[in-house]
Each structure stands twice: as C-alpha cells, then as structure tokens.
Amino acid sequence: MKVLFVYSPTDPKLNKNYNLITTTLENAGNKVITSKLNIGLAMDEASKSYHKLIASLKKIDILVVESSIPSNGIGFLVATALNEKKPVLALSESKNKKANEAFWYYAQKNKLLNFTAYTLKDLENIINEYVNKVKKLIDTKFILIISPEIDTYLQWASDNRRMHKAQVVRRAVE
C-alpha cells in the first residue's frame, strides 16, 4: 500500500518517534512518502508544498499523521483525506493527548478517522494493527468489458436502485 506520513517538525524531541513511524510502515511492506509541514515558508514555496501534498494525497491508500503538536496544516490534510475517502491514522504521544481533543471527538463520528494515543512501546503494534485492518477495507479496482446489452441493464439497475453500476455488479458477485 501507499502511505503518506505527515508531521510537524517543531519539536526535535519527537524526531525519534517520526523515524520509528516511518520505519514501522516500511517494514510492513508499504511504500511510504514522508512529508514534514514546513512553517514560515515564502508564499511561492508554500504553494508548491501545498500542491505537492495534495497531489500525493490523491495517489495514496492511507494517510498517517503524527499530531502530538496540533497544527492547522495537519488538520487541513486530514479533512482533505477524509473528503477523498482515504483512511487516516492520527497518532499522538500519550502525554500530548489533551492537545488533540478535536481529533478524538471527530474520530468518534467518522469511520475513516482513527485517533490513537501512543507510547514508544506500543507504537509499532498500533501501526501494524491499523495497516492490517485497512488492507481488508480497501477496494481493488477491476476492469470489466461488457456488451452493450449488459451496460443498458446496469444503467437501468443503477438508476432504479440509486447506486453506481459498480455497486450493482459488486452486489451480484457477492
């Protein structure tokens, strides 16, 4: 799977955590794109960074954020990922859990957002469990060549059932 890992590098004490998260994701067989949110960039650089992150977000399967230090940028990326129907794992060091009450609250209402407080001892286990859980949820794209008659039927069925043609086929197969 393709994973985008984003963090805010404002606290150097968390560098060990960032490295452990990246290593754990890679050891689980994922292709990891790591991006740190740079604060105080010039307008041109900030715009390029923003467009690069949004482009990366569209190509990934999972977004992982380290949110121990609250950031508007991380909040925006999480909202964008959820809007794109991407699963999100928001991690916060246990001692910083209170700073992320908004993530915790929103995670209670959204199936795609998982907010978890961690310690260095349980971080690898949390990440591996989440990745394994998400692997079972992500759909695989499958291209099917059909006759015009079947397409006409699928169009009729999708209109009458108010669902996409792919959903009609998936239900029939299941």
Summarize the entry for a quick read.
The protein is 50% helix and 17% strand.
Residues in helix, %? 40-55%
Uncertain parts: none
Average pLDDT metric: 85
Question: Structural class of the secondary elements?
Answer: alpha/beta
Number of strands: 5
Q: Secondary-structure element order, as H and E?
A: EHEHEHEHEHHH
What is the end-to-end distance?
A: 24 Å
Biggest sheet, strands in spatial order?
2-1-3-4-5
Overall 3D form: elongated
Specify the biggest β-sheet: 5 strands, parallel
Number of helices: 7
The radius of gyration over CA amounts to 19 Å
**Fraction in beta strands:** 15-25%
Name a few traits of the molecule.
5-stranded parallel β-sheet; 174 residues
Structure description:
With 174 residues, this protein is of the alpha/beta class. Helices cover 50% and strands 17% of the residues. The protein has helices at residues 15-27, 43-59, 72-83, 101-107, 123-137, 148-161, 165-173, and strands at 2-7, 31-36, 62-66, 88-93, 113-118. A 5-stranded parallel beta sheet has the order 2-1-3-4-5, sandwiched between helices. The longest helix has 17 residues, at 43-59. It is elongated and about 60 Å long.
Write the layout of secondary structure elements.
Elements: E1 2-7, H1 15-27, E2 31-36, H2 43-59, E3 62-66, H3 72-83, E4 88-93, H4 101-107, E5 113-118, H5 123-137, H6 148-161, H7 165-173
Parallel strand pairs: 1-2, 1-3, 3-4, 4-5
Helix pairs in contact: 1-5, 6-7
